[in-house]
Amino acid sequence: MTDATADSSSIFTRKPRKGYPAQKSTENEKISEEMTDATDDWDEISRIDPSVFTSEPHEKRTKGRGEIYYLPLYKAALQGKWEDAEKIIKDDKNAMVAEVSSAKETALHIAASTGRRSIKFVERLVDSMDKDLLGQPDKDGDTPLHYAALVGNTEAATILVEKNPALLHKTNNNGLTPLHAAVMSGQEKIVCDILKMTSVEDPCFTGQAGVKLLNLLITADFYEIAFQLLKRNPSLALKTDKEGLTALRKLALKPGAFKSRSQKGNCWSLFNHFFSGIACRSSYPQGGDVENAIGSSEKGLTSPTIVKKMSKHTQALKLLRLLIDETLKVDNASKVRRLLLPPVRLAARWGIHEFVAEVIKAYPQSLWLLDENGMSYFHLAVKYRHENIFGLLCHQMSSRKHFITTSLDGFGNNLLHLAGELQPSDKVSGAALQMQRELQWFQEVEKVVQPSYKEMKNRKGKTPRMVFTEEHKDLLKQGEKWMKGTASSCTVVAALVVTVAFAAAFTVPGGNTSDQGIPIYLNEAAFLIFAISNAFALFSSSTSLLMFLGILTSRYSEYDFLKALPMRMSIGLISLFFSIVSMLVAFGSSLQIVLSHRVNWIWVPISLLACVPVTLFAILQFPLLVEIVSSTFGPGIFRKRNDEIIM
Prior knowledge:
57% helix, Serine Threonine Protein Phosphatase 5, Tetratricopeptide repeat
């Protein structure tokens, strides 16, 4: 994500200014020049104001003031203490525009960037200043409005713009307006407010500035605002920024914007669907120019509610469709391919199946356009293990998909060769489950390729099976080591439970009668619970022990990792869990039998304490168990997700 990182760099990056060439002079000449300049300055001041000879404060106001001198003013602006600053300003009128830091910031810069606590300070200072002084830039050309936009200080930005609307058009040394600064820092609220105060004819919506703004909006996940900007100026879809990125490519670098690549769960998705978005209040810009207002529902970039209440994924998909439509309006096939194919190939590598599906629906010919390595979208999907994109080929395409499965890449590999290559994955835990996932991929691709392709050799003379065996030999050893280590640890626990449960069956609580050996508490309900739970603990722990022994004695061939080993591991873990629960129930009922005659409520703390180890086991082992069971017995990653035929 290098491109995305580059776009999020601070607008306050300090760049050294070009220095002036050094003057060649002797030391004496320098001293003489300094003395002459000082004398001239003194004569000039004396001529203008004779009181300089007797007025020390006035002399201080005109000579030798810098960063240290204005430190009290800096602190006052930082803390929002207008009373302290007012005393300094009354003594020194230049203090309002004085540079109070090495970055050439003024007090207004500092106050505008400190948030709500300095609003009164900003308001009083702005009232005291001429409007032309409000745009004084710092070292990097940033005005106080840039600072307010960067930190999201809406109140300060409103105060500044009300007095000098021209501040909205001021650019810094990087050519960025306050709107760009607000978008770069992700301040959605102030972005909405600045948009409502900006005319649609503003230069920041066109040319390089417009492209930069559009790409920044995509980077900041402001997809609805980007959509409105693109509708107003469709030509932005075809232009590149200074980094050579189009908006479509920038969107391809945002896999999290699409539902297929979102890492959030279903509950969050439902929440996001109903509650996402920030509603910006409807207001007209000053001057009443409703027709040209950014908040106008007809001509502006946004409707009165700039960000509609729709999920981020829906907004991104809507923006994607508009970008594709605008790209396809170009009456030049080669240019369309240059604009469209690099982003969609990037999306195929990231696994954004919505992106790939929309491009295929809008431009089906793109399926036959291969990259420099002779790979189509589906070759990339298999190579990088994106089952959602591969599912488009299996379930959402007509019979023409068979033409795609016959194509070879630049190295003579068919789809099955690519499935045989090892691809590191963070989608599963542990080497054993990764080996299982790789086998599932190989089997699934086998179903779609032609029978002759299963034994086809690539340019290196290797069949798909040879490629798979060679590429996965290290993973096979790692999976074996992981399986044996897990099984060995669980075997010790299962053996202990078997031993305890077996011994408890012959040492019943309360003892037996001396004549017939019948348990003394045989008629107690707690004794019946003890007997059943102890028997269940013995049988389930024995089952668990046998499963883990089966894992330890396995021959560990490749296909053992597909079903046999994961099935034994899941049965063993489930049996071990129930054996531990049963053992604790048996122990609790035994204590109840022995102590109930003295303490009637003893079952309460026993039940609570018994829940502790059960809960710990569930927390530590259930995620692994669920993953194994889902991967082995679940519906699978290649299931049909959509009935729509895209081609």
